[in-house]
Amino acid sequence: MDEPQDGPLGLGHQPTHTHDRSSEHHPVLHEHYGPEARYAVGAEATLPTTKHQEEIRRGLELGLQGADSINDKTIPTFSRGELPHFAGINTFLKAPYLEDVRQVGNYDVAVLGAPYDGGTTYRSGTRFGPQGIRKISALYGPYSFELGVDLRESISMVDLGDIFTIPANIEKTFDQISKAVGHVYASGAFPVVLGGDHSIGYPTTRGVADEMGGKKLGIIHFDRHVDTQETDLDERMHTTPWFHATNLPNVPAKNLVQIGIGGWQAPRPGVAVGRERETTVLTVTDCVEMGIEAAAARALEVAWDGTDAVWLSFDVDCLDAAFVPGTGWPEPGGFLPREVLKFIQLVAERPLAGIEVVECSPPYDNAEITALISTRVICDTLGCLVRAGHLPRRSTPSGP
Ligand SMILES: [Mn+2]
Questions:
Q1: For tag attachment on the chain, is the N or C end more exposed, with fewer CB atoms within 10 Å?
Q2: Ligand 1: distance of its center to the CA of 327 in Å?
């Protein structure tokens, strides 16, 4: 994942729908697989190993050939690249660190941290979210079995490090975040923002919307909380991003779809705003009873109605509190991981302007499981965008 890639994917089969289990382009397979496993095994056979080989060559050159006693001659003396997973410098998925952000447009995907928790109204700690997510992301390889995607072979990805946030000033921090995200989006690279508390949802979408030349942006928002009130504790906080985002001229409230809302932590002022502005709200029960597929179809329909791009804002607290102890406002009764991952996979069958994962607070996390699901949501989003042919988007270097 260290070099720009010019051509399209080397994948022989790119389903545009997750239910396409056709094996017509696959090699001959035995009959011992379930339907999804059959797709997965067949897809793996079509994936190249070109970038992996390049990574190995680069590792041996820069990290020196391993000691004489090492039998595997692909192993360098100094760890360079994916292995071992416990070694190395913690960028996201061990993507190269791009110090010169002016070069970001040379890459398909750019990861950037927004380490800010001045918008939290209860538990803080999300300023360590980007670090926590990067750390556990080292556990992941670039390949997903079920998705049949190898990110290393498909896209070039860099980690830009973190935005210089201003801990004592939320408005200056918002300006920094908008400028950073706008810069990445305008470059043509796909922004992956590691929060940070959910107050960053306003400046991230503002950064993108400002670069759209008046075209409209929809928002798909996973959360237990509506986050649509104007102020909280007398300021714009992590309970307020969508009030302000949907005040932007090209971010209509009618294209804001809020998924997983519920419980005892949804402030009434925000509910009233959503009612007035006609945001779409689906509770966890709504999604489960209508089915995740129908719920995802509804979300896409709303977010894409008359818009030109859609931003994905994922608050980890949409999951049941049992799965996300490391978050600002844990709320029981949320989604199961497999439900939310299925939902994300369906959403990412359409293009996205970018994604943010927010409210991961490592100081409250147990065994890194909140950071782990944060990483997984990002990887599944990228994998599905690749599988559907939306990444890489090298043909539009100046943005969609
Ligand atoms: Mn929330």
A1: C
A2: 9
What is the helix (H) or strand (E) element at residue 237, kind and residue range? none
Pairing of strands 149-150, 143-144: antiparallel
Place of tokens 């660190």: 97
Distance (Å, rounded) from C-alpha 98 to C-alpha 92?
12
Residue with tokens 């359409």: 350
Helices in the chain by DSSP H: which ranges?
35-46, 50-63, 129-137, 151-154, 170-187, 201-209, 241-245, 268-277, 284-290, 292-303, 337-347, 369-387
Domain boundaries, the chain: 92-387
Distance between CA atoms of residues 150 and 366, nearest Å? 29
Mean pLDDT value of segment 223-239: 98
346-to-138, 311, 340, 383 alpha-carbon distances in Å: 25, 14, 10, 11
- In angstroms, the Cα distances linking 327 to 130, 131, 321, 362 are 13, 14, 9, 8
Superfamily covering domain 92-387: Ureohydrolase domain (3.40.800.10)
Q: Which of 184-193, 232-241, 391-400 has the lowest mean pLDDT?
A: 391-400
Name the band, by pLDDT with cuts 50, 70 and 90, for residue 88: very high
Q: What whole-number distance in Å separates Cα of residue 314 and Cα of residue 299?
A: 14
pLDDT over 70 (residue 121): yes
> What separation in Å is there between the alpha carbon of 151 and the centre of ligand 1?
29
Distance (Å, whole) CA 334 – CA 295: 15
